[in-house]
Please model this.
Amino acid sequence: MRKILVTGALGQIGSELTTELRRVYGENNVIASGRRIKEGHEKLIESGPFEIVDITKGKDVSEIVKKHNVNTIINLAAILSAVGEKYPEQCWDINMNGLYNILEVAREENCMVYTPSSIAAFGPTTPPDNTPQDTIQRPTTMYGVTKVAGELLCDYYFKRFGVDTRGVRFPGLISYETLPGGGTTDYAVHIYYDALKNKKYTSFIGKDTKMDMMYMPDALDAIVDLMEADPAKLIHRNAFNVTAMSFDPEMLAASIKKVIPEFELDYEVDPVRQAIADTWPNSLDDSAAREEWGWNPKYDLDAMTKDMLDKLKIKLG
Ligand code: NAD
Model:
């Protein structure tokens, strides 16, 4: 029986993943945790065990793992790309020292560890189209540096200590439950809110900038399916390329216009986030994930747009 600790559980992924895991594995088998209580998450916090855990404090992580007999840690606590450029020191501390603490506790307490990497683990010298699973990774952001180093550290803990480490390289994730935490692909979430509220959106990412994206239900499947995959079939283990679609702001606007014909898009490009986006791939090759553990996303751009707008309409009232 799995006993799962989710770190960063009140973030964009964690707030939906925790609910899904509690449905699949049982409420009391999923321990949600965050650095602090956040307003608006009362329902999630009350739906099962919740602990305050800062992953930079290894002793605290260890105590919670022992207290709840945890055997699986899903480590979502992190600083994302745009915030990481603002606070590189904090980004290194949480993404690297925090991950190291998680892996050390996992080694001592015999836990599986799932840590997402990101398309940010690639850089300007990576082949941008149909980016291979195994390729050049020389990122130029602090976030990207921590993601490549994290991939390597997880590989090391598997090879050296036999810790069952797994993970995917997520593209930009789109969801309606919790707003994104300061990444470069956040425009693709904000655009839906503004489309419903104002019928127009000003994009901070430029017109022709294509990036990989995924709707949250597929991202949750990517976590549960890889976690449950037969280890004998995994050649890569950590850092599988996964994608569901690749689009630029114009393509996203065209999809929204099919539902809201009067929707208008204009641009006020943010040089910091544009510079980050320019170093990321246009589209990933995710064939290794498809072959090794059956990755198969369900939502394309138009299916996602329809569902996002339907769900947000209800949420925004
Ligand atoms: P998020 O920013 O929404 O949530 C992260 C959470 O971690 C926040 O609630 C934050 O308060 C918490 N946190 C920060 N420092 C902490 C610490 N020291 N101890 C405990 N908690 C701490 O991020 P997310 O979008 O949910 O991302 C989760 C993981 O997925 C990250 O590793 C991220 O790099 C990766 N990822 C996300 C995306 C995306 O589009 N959302 C894309 C690629 C990869």
